[in-house]
Design goal:
By secondary structure, the chain is an all-alpha fold. It has a single domain, classed as Orthogonal Bundle (MetI-like fold). It contains ten helices and no strands. α2 crosses α10 and α3 crosses α8. It is globular. 26% of the residues are buried.
């Protein structure tokens, strides 16, 4: 995909989304306020104090801090467990039995149970969302370990390559795409579940403000907070993760 296509496709997608939103706002302005009004409110609430005296920027930072902590915890545990499952069959067997059930725990049930059991605290959100996200990361890394070329490993063993060389030239290059896909998937999953947990009773964060304005019946403010967080996630994806991925895979041919 050339540069023109990479720029044109997102622009067209955004234009179509805004166009559909405008049509919906003309048909039912109560349920679908104008996207320009929502965007204006998003910009305004960044520095303006909300009903609790804190700005939208404060609530955005609180939510993002939770997301980053949970992504870091989930990735570290996923990589460690996934690699160990790929290297050691005695470790693989018990986790392989538990993972299918672990992955089917409903987010809402897990969040509600944890909030009741551990309390409505920041630590509870980090624990429960990490618990819900980790099995998906483990499966992805484990799949990467299973796809390592056994012929390369056999050749490395023949030439008596040490562990450092194995990791540098075989394991890491094979696992890197899986690590990036895991990071992207976990980021997308975690920020949604964090907002859900905040909406169930945490006192701050974007989800808490969405809950507040929902209870007030103020849809434009609700969408403005949601839009603020979505825009931030897009910035993280295209200005950080995509650039990091390009550098990590610069050695690959086009």
């Amino acid at each position: 995909m050339n540069l023109t296509q990479r720029v044109l496709l997102p622009v067209l997608s955004l234009a179509v989304a805004i166009g559909l939103w405008l049509i919906a706002s003309r048909i039912n302005p109560t349920m679908f306020p104008s996207p320009f009004r929502v965007a204006s409110l998003s910009i305004e609430l960044v520095m303006s104090p909300g009903p609790d005296g804190n700005t939208g920027l404060f609530h955005l930072w609180v939510s993002l801090r939770r997301v980053f902590i949970i992504v870091a915890i989930s990735l570290v545990i996923s990589v460690v467990v996934g690699v160990l499952m790929g290297l050691h069959r005695p470790i693989q067997a018990p986790f392989a039995m538990v993972l299918p059930g672990w992955m089917t725990v409903p987010d809402i049930v897990g969040i509600l149970f944890a909030l009741i059991l551990l309390g409505y605290t920041d630590l509870t959100v980090i624990i429960v969302v990490s618990f819900l996200a980790i099995p998906f990361g483990i499966v992805n890394v484990w799949q990467g370990m299973k796809n390592i070329d056994t012929d390369l490993l056999e050749m490395a063993n023949t030439f008596q390559a040490d562990g450092r060389l194995l990791w540098r030239y075989i394991y890491l290059p094979t696992l890197l795409p899986y690590l990036f896909s895991s990071g992207r998937y976990l980021l997308g999953m975690i920020w949604k579940v964090v907002l859900l947990a905040e909406a169930f009773g945490i006192s701050n964060g974007i989800g808490a403000m969405v809950r507040f304005w929902y209870n007030q019946g103020n849809i434009p403010q609700l969408l403005a907070y949601f839009l603020l967080f979505v825009a931030t996630v897009f910035v993280i994806e295209y200005l950080f993760l995509e650039q990091l991925e390009k550098r990590a895979f610069a050695w690959r041919p086009e």
